[in-house]
Amino acid sequence: MEKFQLSLLFKIIGLGSASGLIYNDNTIIAIGDNSSYLYEYQLQTNTLERHALAENAQENSPKKLKPDFEAITQYQDSLYIFGSGSTENRNVMVQVNAKTKTVIASNDLSNLYLAMQSFGEIKPEDFNLEGAIFNGETWFLFNRGNGKTNKNIVFTIDAKNLTNEFRILSNAFKLPKIKGIRTSFTDAILVDDKIYFLATAEKTESTYDDGEILGSIIGRIDVTKMKIDFTQKITDTHKFEGITLFKKSEKEIEFLLCEDNDTEILESNIFKLKLDLEIKN
User: Fold this and answer.
1) What angle (nearest 5°) sits at the alpha carbon of residue 159, between those of residues 154 and 161?
2) Which of 44, 119, 186, 258 has the smallest C-beta neighbourhood within 10 Å, fewest atoms?
3) How far apart are CA 170 and CA 197, in angstroms?
4) pLDDT in tens, 69-106
5) DSSP codes of every residue in 47-88
6) d(CA 225, CA 223)
């Protein structure tokens, strides 16, 4: 058993089905997979603001119509928010000004998602993007292997843009099981040259329908080798879908995690996860 501490830090009222978050300067930027808003939560004042990502934005969109924003990443002054690609209407990436929270562009990534499916040998019904990282040169996009074929894949993409000029590499990962069910990627973050990822075991063979939650793990991938350094189960009951860096020292690292409650209730729990950095296989 590796050394870790998981604790409930606070609850955000007004944000439901949280699926991704970024922490900067006592502020949390978050998305929810039922919503077409970007959320801005100030920790010092406990205040929440909403910023529309599309016309006629809704907080609890019907499942068949929702954009299913499942991944968010930041580089410099831009936020990038990705639809999961699990249905035809979930192929949009929205670029947002990180300072003003205004939409810069909304791009259809259908061509990219089709190329990823072809390159990764993923059937459309098994494609489900759940994590994104951008370091200014390279994109890392994470397919959640919660379909029948368990295709947990990290796509490494070098691109001038993500709409029509890109080069794709893929690495498939066999993640641990919890209670006999394979865990699957739900989010990831880059810290130095390491990718820290979350993965959840959910009793379903569908990227569309929810199932019983059996627990979540955290793991780490060495970017240069594209090999997993370690994995650690952190809960038997929670479906963690977002991770962001909170604090880091020589001996330990702290993350904030958000939980997808798979309901229409507009509240989200934010957890703190503390890890010993001297983690070994």
Assistant:
1) 115
2) 44
3) 16
4) 999 999 999 999 999 999 988 999 999 999 999 999 99
5) EEEEEESSTT--SS--TTT---EEEEEEETTEEEEEE--SST
6) 6
